[in-house]
Design brief:
By secondary structure, the chain is an alpha+beta fold. The protein folds into 4 domains: 168 residues, Sandwich (Immunoglobulin-like), CATH 2.60.40.1730; 97 residues, Immunoglobulin-like; 35 residues; 78 residues, Arc Repressor Mutant, subunit A (Orthogonal Bundle). It is 24% helix and 45% strand. The radius of gyration is 32 Å and the shape is globular.
Length: 438
C-alpha cells in the first residue's frame, strides 16, 4: 500500500512539473520587471510647455522628482517622445548637462531620452529638471499636424500642459480637446490638466493664415536720420534668423548706390547670422530706399527701409546751441565765484553717493552666487552696454534656449534689464542693484 502511495505521488509530481515550471517562470519575469522599476522616487509634478510654429514645435518639459525612501543611489530615468529627435537638451537649474543617452526606436517611432540626476536625494527632497527639444511637423493637404506623444517611466502626481499656437496660424482641431482656450499677445493658448498620468497623447492640426515667413531680420528698419559727413561710412549689423528646419541661402539687394552689399551667405537650420552692411556717406543729400533679403526656398522677400540725410554745413540750430552753451558756462563761472566770496572758503565737493563699480570688482562679487554660464553672460553685458541677446549668444556660444533661461534668472535677481528694441532684445546692467554700488 505504501509503495502504491509513493508511486502515485511521483506520478502526480511529474504531471505537475510543466505547470510548476510555468509558474516559476512567470514569477521570475514579474520579479525582473519589479527590479527594473524604482519605487524609491516618484514624479510629483510635470509641466509641458510647447510653442507651435509653421514647420516645427519647441517643447520644454519640466519634471519635478520627489524622494520617497532612503535608497542612497543616483537616479537614472528616461522619457520617450514620439519622433526621431536629434536636438535635445536635459538640464537642471544650474544648467548642468544631465543627458546620458538618446536612442530612436524605428519600430515604435519613439525617441528614448535617458538622463541622470547629479546627486543623491534625501527623503522628501524635490529636484526639477528641464527637457528641451524641437519637433518637426507633418503636412497633409495644406494642413500641418503635430503628433505629440510623451511617456514617463512612472506615474505623475500632477500634470499640466500649455501649448501656444504662434501668430498667423489657424487652429483646425485638437485631440483631446483643451480644458481652456485663450488669446495672449496674438497667440492662441491651450491648456490641459491631468492627475496620475503615465503618458500624454495630443494631436493638433493647424494651417498658416498668412504667407509663411522664412527668415526674420533685425532691426526691421534703418533710419539714420540727419548726419554730418565727419566720417566716410556708417556700418549697421543685421541679425538674419533662419526659421526653417533646413539650411537656406540668403541674397541681399538694394536700390541705393551708397550701400555696400555683402555677397550671398548660408544659414544653418533654426540658426542665425550677423551681417554688416556699410553706407557710403561721401556725398551730400537725402537718401531713401530699401535693402531686400531673399532666400533660395521662397519668392517672399523681406524689405528693410533705409533713410538718411548727409550734410556738411553747420545748421543754424547748431550755432544757437554753441552760443547758448558758452553763455551758460560763463554764467555758471560768475555764480561760482560769487559763491566762493560769500562763503570765504574753498568749496568741498562731495563724492557721489552711489558709484557703479568696475567690471573686475563686480565679477568678483558675483563669482560666488552665479553659475559659470551666468558669469559669462554678465561679463559680455558689462563689457558691451546695450548688447543684443543674439550677440551674446554668438559670442558665448551658448544655445539660444539655454541663454533665454539664463537671462530670465539674471532678471529675476535684478542684475540686468531686458528691453525690446525693434525686433531684438537689448540687455543692460541694472544700476539700481546693490551689487553694483560701493
Amino acid at each position: 500500500m505504501k509503495k502504491v502511495t509513493v508511486v502515485f505521488f511521483i506520478l502526480v509530481l511529474f504531471a505537475s512539473l510543466p505547470y510548476l515550471s510555468q509558474g516559476l517562470t512567470s514569477n521570475s519575469k514579474v520579479s525582473d520587471v519589479f527590479t527594473q522599476v524604482d519605487h524609491n522616487i516618484g514624479i510629483s509634478k510635470v509641466n509641458l510647455l510647447g510653442s507651435i510654429y509653421f514647420l516645427f514645435t519647441n517643447i520644454n518639459i519640466s519634471i519635478e522628482y520627489i524622494q520617497l525612501t532612503d535608497n542612497g543611489t543616483l537616479l537614472i530615468d528616461y522619457i520617450e517622445i514620439k519622433g526621431n529627435l536629434s536636438n535635445v537638451e536635459v538640464t537642471d537649474q544650474l544648467d548642468s548637462n544631465l543627458l546620458i543617452g538618446l536612442k530612436y526606436n524605428e519600430t515604435s517611432g519613439f525617441t528614448k531620452i535617458t538622463f541622470q540626476l547629479p546627486k543623491v536625494l534625501s527623503i522628501g527632497e524635490k529636484y526639477t529638471i528641464q527637457v528641451y527639444s524641437i519637433l518637426p511637423t507633418e503636412t497633409s493637404e495644406g494642413v500641418r499636424e503635430l503628433d505629440l506623444s510623451v511617456s514617463w517611466s512612472r506615474s505623475v502626481s500632477v500634470f499640466s500642459s500649455t501649448i501656444y499656437l504662434e501668430k498667423n496660424l489657424i487652429l483646425y482641431s485638437t485631440n483631446p480637446q483643451p480644458q481652456t482656450l485663450s488669446v495672449i499677445d496674438s497667440r492662441l493658448r491651450m491648456t490641459w490638466d491631468t492627475i496620475n498620468l503615465e503618458s500624454f497623447d495630443l494631436i493638433v492640426e493647424y494651417k498658416s493664415g498668412l504667407t509663411q515667413q522664412i527668415i526674420e531680420v533685425s532691426p526691421s528698419s534703418w533710419h539714420v536720420g540727419r548726419i554730418s559727413r565727419s566720417n566716410t561710412k556708417i556700418i549697421q549689423s543685421f541679425t538674419v534668423t533662419n526659421l526653417l528646419t533646413v539650411p537656406i541661402k540668403v541674397n541681399i539687394t538694394n536700390n541705393l548706390d551708397i550701400i555696400d552689399i555683402p555677397s550671398d551667405f548660408e544659414i544653418n537650420s533654426l540658426s542665425f547670422a550677423i551681417i554688416d552692411i556699410e553706407l557710403d556717406i561721401s556725398k551730400d543729400g537725402e537718401f531713401v530706399g530699401q535693402i531686400t533679403f531673399l532666400t533660395n526656398v521662397s519668392i517672399n522677400e523681406v524689405d528693410i527701409p533705409v533713410s538718411l540725410t548727409v550734410y556738411t554745413t553747420i545748421s543754424p540750430w547748431t550755432y544757437f546751441m554753441i552760443i547758448f552753451s558758452v553763455f551758460a558756462v560763463a554764467l555758471g563761472v560768475r555764480e561760482y565765484r560769487q559763491y566762493l566770496k560769500s562763503k570765504n572758503k574753498k568749496q568741498v565737493t562731495s563724492p557721489e553717493k552711489q558709484v557703479v563699480q568696475d567690471e573686475r570688482t563686480v565679477l568678483d562679487k558675483l563669482e560666488g552666487i552665479l553659475s559659470e554660464k551666468e558669469l559669462q553672460v554678465m561679463k559680455e553685458i558689462l563689457k558691451n552696454p546695450e548688447i543684443s541677446q543674439s550677440q551674446v549668444a554668438l559670442r558665448t556660444k551658448i544655445p539660444k534656449a539655454t541663454l533665454s533661461r539664463i537671462i530670465q534668472r539674471l532678471e529675476n535677481k535684478r542684475l540686468i534689464i531686458k528691453k525690446s528694441v525693434g525686433m531684438s532684445n537689448k540687455l543692460y546692467i541694472n544700476e539700481d542693484s546693490p551689487v553694483f554700488k560701493i
